[in-house]
Structures are given as structure tokens and as C-alpha cells.
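hiii, so i know i said id send this last week but things got crazy w the move. better late than never?? heres the sequnce for the chain we talked about at the cafe, plus the structure i predicted for it. fair warning i was half asleep when i ran it
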Amino acid sequence: MRENSASSTDLLEHERPPAYVDPEIIAAEEKKWTPKKIALWVAISLVGAISWFMLAIVRGETVNGIWFVFAAVCSYLIAYRFYARYVEAKLANPDDRRATPAEYDADGKDYAATDRRVLYGHHFAAIAGAGPLVGPVLAAQMGFLPGTIWIIVGVIFAGAVQDYLVLFFSMRRGGRSLGQMAKEELGTVGGYAAILATLTIMIIITAILALVVVNALGESPWGVFSVGMTIPIALFMGVYLRYLRPGKVGEVSLIGFILLMVAIIAGGWVAETSWGAQYLTLDRVTLAWAVIIYGFVAAILPVWLLLAPRDYLSTFMKVGTIILLAVGIIVVRPEISVPAFSEFASRSDGPVWSGSLFPFLFVTIACGALSGFHALIASGTTPKMVEKERQVRFIGYGGMLMESFVAIMALVAAVTVDRGIYFAMNSAAGATGGTIEGAAAFVNSLGLTGVHVTPELLGETAQHVGEQSIVSRTGGAPTLAVGMATILHQMMPAFDLMSFWYHFAIMFEALFILTAVDAGTRVARFMLQDTLGNFFPRFNDHNWRLGAWLTTAIMVAGWGSILILGVTDPLGGINTFYPLFGIANQLLAAVALAVCLAIAANKGKFKYLWIIALPLAFDLVVTVVGSWQKIFSSNPKVGYWANHFAFKDALESGASSFGAAKTPAAMEAVLRNTMVQGTLSIIFVVLTLIVVLMAVLEVMRAAKGQQKETRENPYIESRIFAPAGLTATDAEKKLEKEWAEFYRKHPEEIAGSAGHSAH
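okay and structure toks below
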């Protein structure tokens, strides 16, 4: 009997197709250049060059929106085809013969081999939170050109490189968190500084993401209903894909899309009913608590039940909406009158945010160009779900390029909005008084060339988008929604769907951000579990549910408390907290790049360390200068401590109002918030400098031949196959057919190959 069993196993192994395409075949496919292929890349390069020339050099009184689309897309295609492959070949060296953690450590909860297209959706949805939507909108204060250059150039050489390398290095180490990798590579001091930095920065980042959702949905019953309905839709999709129709990704996508459209349309009906207006017109504090509860529940449910299907659903919406917006820009060809460099590009007293172009533009636009938050996702959920090593370029580098495109589209949408309306929407209520009359007076007092706004215009705009008011709707999301709605309405004017498109955009944005909140909370739990596991080994067991619940609750309490501070901030939470978010995010990117630098050095990749060192150096200069100004500037509009002591002196003098704070309670809130912001600024920059210093010392040690032994998990041979990119190559298609035939003969092997059971 034992002999028969052994022989059947041998036969099965003999029939099993290879788990990888021969590397020589891959190399031959990549090096093969046909005349058609050469002509294609020449055309892409020419269109890209012309587009950049029109944006950066020609610059008449107006610039056409289509040049943004073409400049971005052509730049991304060239970067993905050439630079990403260069980084892959010189620093990563993926090997599809190796099993990934999703295969050898499969548990069906956090570790689960996931179709690359679904995983791309999850990863993109998780990284693309508020940043690529909010940052470019806020940065439009400086004009269109600085943000455009930073978004496109920054992502190619910094953001996408970071995302790719962190994801790859974490996957090779069993999906370990960034902080844990830092501890292993940088030693005790650098490691614990990185762990503390990542944990504290993660709290502030998640809080700001949640704050944008709250600001977008505040007093909007249509938005609350539509976004709320995405939760049961995602749960249904999770069950459908897991149990009812496994593997039917296209089918469930179509169902999810139809249900989403129904939810948006129904939201308009519900908002007009008396009960909808009564029960779903929620104030920001109530919404904040709802998001806090949601964040906890979403982070403890199995990844397949809510997180992955919700992310895939939202990615379907996100990518589709951004492509629709891009098509709208090409069709409508909006003429943008915002100057390339605005009046505030050379000043530091902008009404949307205070500070000079350098360094604050580079921290205002974080996600979309370079974002440390991505490193936490890339060393959190995603590395535990990758099927094959060669998929990391598509998921990591490609996912970040798509986020950058979102940022460019957000920038274009923002600069198509009338400048008077833009400043009325993005200036804090303390400046505008929250009324259309006050907003009009404030914007007109700015003295901007060609800008004159009236209360009637602000009232009509609100009426067109189906809202009570658009004044001081800070956070960027409502401004982006107005821009998107205007473009899409102009593309299809006969349908008169302005209010539908506005609320569609609000739901699209809230979906975008909520996925980052729940994924961020789950990643924060992983990070805290890894950290506590150094002292209490039980926390290293990812199947210990009590530990998962406890660590989730701690992290939710952390970001939830910052969220409440932001929601109740008299200066406009997003206006005062967003610079801290940006700096913290970029400091975290410095930590991630420093860890990658040390890992690459210990692998002996000295000749190619510049790939990591250049973005690290630039990021470090930006964030240290920004932190210095936020800590030491004597200008209360820029420096947290200067603002703190100005309010403290006012309170001590017995004043009942000061600046935008109209009551003593509001003044005390500002005092409390600036204390939190100033203290966190000091902690973040000190921890980051320690990590970078330890990384530099590690590189110097490795250069002397004292390289550490690899911390990669032991080699395990892979027993599954999947293509590397969005579409399969000829060689991959051939191998896919062999595997399809194998699974037809041996259907019992499918469960194991999907990562749902051990082999």
C-alpha cells in the first residue's frame, strides 16, 4: 500500500509542469526588438517630449489639460519598461523558482496566494489613500508646474523604487514589517528607532487619512449612504469569491460595479427623503467615531472577507474613474488659466497652507511622488499575498505609477476649478467665517490677479453639486469632486448630471481613503505584533487571535485620538495637521530607503547603491529643512511652537478670542493641538536621523568586507505557477495551458496552489 502511494506521488510529481519560465527564455523575450516595437517606443518618446515642452516651455496665458495626461502616461510607460527593469536586474534579481511566503506559510487569513490582478488591486487601493487626491489639490496653491514635475519625476526615481524594493525585500523575509527588517539590518539602536518611528508615524498618517474621509462626508447624507453601502457589497463579494464562485474575478467585478452604481443612485434618492436627511446628515465627530469602529472591525476580519474584495472593488472604481477623467480631459480639453507658478510660489503665507515652495511642496505632495506609508503596506499585507517573485515589479513599481497618475489627474481637476472657488473651498472656516459672504470677502482680499468671486457664484456652485454649502470644505476631496464633476458634466452636458458626478466623486474618494484606513490599521497591527514579539514571543504567532485583537485596539486608539483632535480643531484640522502628515510621511520614506540601502549593501550591490542613495539624500534634505522650520520658525503661520506660544500668551492675557479661534475653548484646543504637533515633529526627525545614521554606518561596515549574513528566509522550491505581469507572455501562456491541463486531471491540487492549504 505504501509503495502504491509512493508511486502515485512520484507520478503526480512527474506530471506537474514547471513552476517557472526558463530565465533564458525570459531574457530572449525581453531583448527581442522588432521594427514595430522600436517604432512604438519612438512614438511614445516623441509624444512625451512634446507634452513636456508644452507644459514647461511654451506656457501661454492658458495651457491645455491634455498635455498633462500625455506627459504623465508617456513618462510612466518609459519608466516601467526601462528603469524598473534596470532596478529589478541590479538590486533584486527575482527568482520564480523560489516559493513566496504566501505559498509556504499559507494560513488563509493573512498569508494567502492571490491572483496578481486582484493583488495589484488590493495593493493599489491600500497605498492610494488620501495623499494622491489631497496633496496635489492643496499644492495647486503654488501653480501647476512645480507639482506636475515632482509627481512624475519623483515617482519614477523615488516613490516607485522605494515601493518595489521594500515589497521585494519583505517578501524574501517572510513578509516581515519594515521596523523588524530595520532591527535585523541596523542593529538594536537603529532598529528600535525605526520601530518607534514607524509606529508613531503610522498613527498620524492613518489619522489624517480618516480625517479626510470625515471632512468629505460631513453633513452629506448622499455620501454617507453610498459609502456605507460599499461595506455590505464588499462582504458579499468576499463570500461570493471564496465560496459561491471561486476564481470568478470578472464575474464578481461586474456584480460589484452594478451594486456600486445602484448605491450611488439610491444615495441621491435617500438624501432627498425626510428620514435620510434626518438620520444620515451626520456631524464630523459622529462620523469620526463611525470610522474608528469601522477601522477596528475591518482590521480583525479575515483578509479575504472584507479587505481584499473591498480593495479590488474600490480599485475597479478608482482606475475606471481616473481613466474616465483622463478621457474627459482629452475630450473637453479644458484650458487651464492657473499660472505655472502662482503668486504664493515665492511667498510663505498661502491661505490653503503656510510655508515656502521648498521644502513644503515636496511634503504636501507625498503620496503620488514618494510616500513612506507605502513602505508599511509593502512590508505589511502585500508581501504575504504575492504568488511569484517576478510579479513584484508589476505590483510594487506598477502600482505606484498608477497612484502617481491619480495624483496628476487630481492636480488637473483642481486647477480647472475657478481660482476664487478653489480658495473659498480650501481656506479654513476661521478665515471665511463659513459663509458665502465671508468667503467671497476673504478671497477677494487676497489680491489675486484676475480673481473675483461673489456670494452668488459660491451659492450657485453648491446648488449645482447638490450640497448646502461648499465654503471651507477643506481637505482637498470636495475641491477635486467639483473639478471632476465639472469636466465630466462638460463631456456629457445633455444628461445634466452635475450633482450625480459630484457625489460619485465624493464616494470614489471616500472609497479610496477608507481602503487605506482599514489596510493601514491591519498593517499597524502587524507592526505592533512584530515589535511586541521581540519581548513576548507569543505575539509572533499570527494565528493568536487575542493578540491580533489587542494590538489592533491599541493602534486604533492611537490614530482615533488624533482624528478626534483634528475634527475639533478650530484652525481646520486638515490645514494644520496635513503639513505634519506630509513631513511624517516623507520621514518614514527616509527610514524605508535607509533600510533598503543597508540591505543592498549587505548583498554587495555597492555599484548600484546610487539608485537608493539619491532619492534618500533628496528626501532627507527636504524633510529635515521642513522639520527645522516647523519646529524653530518664529512665524506662527509656519512654526508649531511659535503658534503654540502665541496662543498661550493670548490666553494668559485674558483674551477671549485670538486669530481664527473665536472662543477660549477654541484657543485651548489650538494650544493642545500645536503642542501635539510640535512634540511629534521633534520625535519624528530625531528618530529618522538615528535610523539614517545607522544605515550609513552599516554601508561603511559592509564596504570594508564586514557584510552581515543574509536575513532572507531559507530557499523553498515553488510548486505553483503564475504569470509576472498584467498579461501573460507567449512563454507564460504556454505554461499556463500545461497547468490548466494538470489541474483538470488533478483538481485536488487547486486548493494548495491557491495558497489556501499547506502542501
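btw The longest helix spans residues 178-217. thought thatd interest u
miss u guys!!
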